[in-house]
Design goal:
mainly beta
């Protein structure tokens, strides 16, 4: 059984791939307080499942979800004359990063107070990571969004004493850039925005934060002057060339407009064959970017020895073509690829009733990623496979849009391998009116994800 995962922003679900109810929604924007950090939109769930002290008692199982959200109050800015104006931030669900807890992975309670794990060190009381209020020049002063949370020194299923959490996130500041830079070539030619049209926070960069309990986080300052550990590559800017090492003669790195949605895979097996003998660094990052020249929304790759200092390896997955000759599939990501999750495939031992502890050396790499169709502009979760984590072959659709709350898009997937051999996927869904929510689906031996029944936990 292969493991599966991926999702992004949406708002409704059901018990099958095409259902008209909300039974698979596990988390919605907060509706009881418009000042809450997630009252407008939410997205990018990252879920951990822990058995404390290796206990198999269901009562000792704990689920923790980190996710990002945007407040309704953040949709307007107030200038020096107290005149209200439209916010210039990109139309994303990013804003601040929060936390929720659960005993079964289906009913969730948001950590909106200190007892449930909200941080005391941020700019608002109900978040895990808020805006950077200490350094005005930092990359994350306007909005932040979640990428991945790791416990690299612990077993993924069991919390160990002294484990350290790493949160990879992206952020944007109030720096203004031309909106036309991010418009697709066809759009720019036919209906380019006025040259004076600006947008803030779109030149996103990637950072990392550290925690000993998953609750209180401290930013780790990267090498870039903005504090980021990964920034868009620009040939004309000497400060962005530091992450292009001597391997740049082998790996083609293109100029980028942003770096965002980092997904990090940690290899604790030092066997070189695991990476096809080409890359032996333990940390591999797959992140979403947009190329400056081709205006392609693509997925790029970077490697690191310690998880903090990264070396870019260029784009590894581009829009267009499934590789299987299916015309319909060929259109599924022609408008862009983004928000991936990458893992090595492992098998479930039906006799022992558990998952392999270490992937087989010849097990394929699996990538679930979000593809945007150029036909209907909807977001879907697609799959690609690789022998070495470097060169990828597209395999088509994994999870389609529904006909209810997530009818306009499914994205930002995250997967959990369950004790019964099934795989659970948390994802973001997008509705007709732009509403978002986090849903859940489940796949059995056949690898087909079906929307899982869940009861909504009140915000």
């Amino acid at each position: 059984m292969s493991s599966t995962s991926i999702t992004d922003d949406t708002n409704n679900g059901g018990s099958s791939s095409f259902t008209n109810n909300n039974n698979n929604i596990v988390l919605r924007p907060s509706s009881n307080n418009q000042e809450s950090f997630d009252s407008f939109k939410i997205g990018s769930p990252c879920v951990h499942r822990y058995a404390r002290d290796s206990s198999m008692d269901p009562s000792d199982i704990e689920y923790v979800m980190w996710y990002h959200g945007r407040s309704s109050a953040n949709n307007t800015n107030v200038d020096d004359n107290d005149d209200e104006e439209s916010i210039l931030l990109p139309p994303l669900s990013t804003g601040r990063i929060g936390r929720a807890i659960s005993k079964n992975g289906l009913q969730w309670e948001k950590s909106s107070n200190f007892d449930l794990g909200a941080s005391r060190a941020e700019d608002t009381d109900d978040v895990s990571l808020g805006l950077n209020m200490e350094s005005w020049w930092s990359f994350d002063t306007a909005h932040v969004g979640l990428g991945q949370v790791l416990l690299p020194m612990s077993n993924p299923a069991v919390i160990t004493d002294g484990g350290v959490y790493l949160m990879y996130y992206m952020g944007g500041n109030l720096e203004e850039t031309d909106l036309s830079l991010y418009m697709e070539s066809s759009t720019t030619n036919n209906a380019a925005p006025p040259p004076e049209t600006k947008i803030q926070g779109m030149k996103m960069r990637i950072g990392v934060a550290l925690s000993q309990d998953g609750i209180t986080w401290g930013r780790i300052e990267g090498d870039d002057p903005t504090g980021a550990c990964m920034v868009p590559y620009e040939k004309s800017d000497p400060s962005t060339k530091g992450d292009i090492d001597t391997a740049s003669t082998v790996w083609k790195v293109e100029e980028e407009l942003y770096c965002a949605w980092p997904d990090v895979f940690v290899n604790t097996n030092t066997n070189k064959k695991l990476f096809g003998g080409k890359e032996q660094q333990p940390f591999h990052m797959y992140y979403s970017t947009m190329t400056k020249d081709g205006k392609e929304k693509a997925i790029a790759r970077a490697v690191s020895d310690d998880g903090f200092r990264w070396y870019k390896r260029g784009v590894c997955l581009r829009p267009g073509g499934s590789g299987n000759g299916d015309t319909n599939d060929d259109n599924l990501d022609t408008a862009g690829c983004a928000r991936s999750i990458v893992f090595k495939e492992i098998e479930f031992d039906q006799v022992k009733g558990n998952w392999e502890s270490v992937p087989k050396l010849d097990a394929p790499w699996i990538m679930y990623y979000e593809g945007v169709s150029s036909v209907d502009r909807k977001h879907r979760i697609l799959k690609a496979e690789s022998e070495d984590g470097i060169t990828w072959v597209k395999k088509g659709i994994v999870f389609d849009v529904g006909d209810g709350w997530d009818c306009n898009g499914v994205s930002s997937p995250h997967i959990l391998r369950m004790d019964d051999g099934t795989v659970r996927m948390y994802y973001t869904g997008l509705g007709e009116n732009g509403s978002t929510a986090i849903g859940v689906a489940r796949a059995g031996d056949d690898g087909v994800f079906v929307r899982e029944q869940a009861e909504f936990a009140f915000a």
